[in-house]
Amino acid sequence: MLIREAIREDAEQVIAVIKNAEESNFMLFGPGERKLETEQFTKFIENIQNDSHSALFIAEIEKRVVGYLIVQGNNMPSRVSHRAYIVVGIHSDFRGQKIGTALFNHLADWAKKKGMHRLELTVMENNTAGITLYKKMGFEIEGTKRHSLYVDGEYMDEYYMSKLL
Predict the structure, then answer these.
(1) Are 62 and 70 in contact (CB under 8 A)?
(2) Maximum C-alpha span of the chain
(3) How far apart are CA 39 and CA 93, in angstroms?
C-alpha cells in the first residue's frame, strides 16, 4: 500500500471512492446527494496542493485508489492556523485492512511537520467502526452535536472528536 498526496490525474478514482464511501450512509452527503464532476474535483486537487495547511492523501493498492483523507487547515496567520479538519473515506471492498490507520499515521507525520497542534473531525454517533478507528488513532470525543443531521427520516447526533499533537 502506498500513501501519497493526490495529483490531478487521480481525480476520477478519488471521486469513485468518495461515491462508494457515501453509500455507507455515514458521510455528510448520502448516496447520490451530490454530483461530483471530474473537472471540478481536479480543480479542488490543484487548489489544495497550493495550500500549505491542507492536503488530500490517498491510499493506493496496485495503482488503484482505495481510500482518501482530506485535511483542511488555515495557512493565514490567525487564531485557528494551528488546527485542521479531517474527512476520511475507505472503499467498502478494502475496509478492515488498516488503510485508515495508514492514512492517519501519514496525516500525523505531515501535520507535525506543518506545525499543527490540533486535528478535528465529526462522526455520526452510529458509525462505530469510524469511532473505533479514531479513538485508536488518539482522537477523543469532545462533545455531541445533537440532531445535527437528518438521515433517512431521523435526526442523527454527531460527535466532535479531536486529537492534540
Answers:
(1) no
(2) 43
(3) 26
The dihedral over CA atoms of 7, 8, 12, 13, expressed in degrees to the nearest 10, equals -10
91: left (phi over 0), alpha (psi -120 to 50) or beta: beta
Q: Closest Cα partner for 57 from 33, 36, 87?
A: 87
The SS3 call for residue 10 is helix
pLDDT tens series, the chain, 165 aa:
999 999 999 999 999 999 999 999 888 888 888 889 999 999 999 999 999 999 999 999 999 999 999 999 987 788 888 999 999 999 999 999 999 999 999 999 999 999 999 999 999 999 999 999 999 999 999 999 999 999 999 999 999 999 999
Residues 6+ apart with CB under 8 A from 112: 165
Q: Residue 121 belongs to what H/E stretch?
A: strand 118-124
